[in-house]
Task: structure prediction
Amino acid sequence: MTCYWIALGRSLLARIIVASQNTILIAATAVLISVIVGGTLGLIAGYRGGWIGDVLLRLADAIMTFPSMLLAMIVLFVFEPGVTNVIFVLAVSRIPIFMRTVRAEVLELKQRMFVVAARATGASTGRILLRHIAPMVLPTIINLAALEMAFVMLVESGLSFLGIGIQPPEVTWGLMVADGRNYLGSAWWLAFWPGLAIMLTAMSLNLLTNWLRVVTDPVERWRLETEAR
Result:
């Protein structure tokens, strides 16, 4: 047999399905951590400002100076590659994106009348952030999270393809493409179908982002109403 998957009696479809669970789970977990940490820091930096906001911004700038792939390669080269380390490094690399986005939204929202009125009635900072500002920022965060999930999935697949991401016996789409490249001349489909799954999933997430932007934005929502008619 020219392919060790066939020699070991492994089903390509079954491996793609199992790899999809690992790939999407890793990307979703990393993005969820980034949303929670980055969103919280963005709320604090935008509302409080001052030296706290400056320190958080400088920290975000320091992380963003390294490309996500390069940062992940450095960390995973120093530490042992594995699911936990991959999720951690991907989450850290995307935290500044959410933090800066939320901070920009909060800087504009805290000047609005409903926030000023809540502050005048003696509402605490936590109540203002959680009850008044956070719900207004949530649609933007959801749209950004869907877009970032596609990016994180591509980075994770790239790391696994380079051999510094998920390690066997675990399997992801990127690792399947890396294993299949040795058989492109005799069994091209071993790398083609996992690669196609990566492309279709990333494309679907981008389309989902566009739909969410239209649904959650009142200015754009008229398009759905026009199509419904």
User: Anything to note?
Assistant: The longest helix spans residues 125-162.
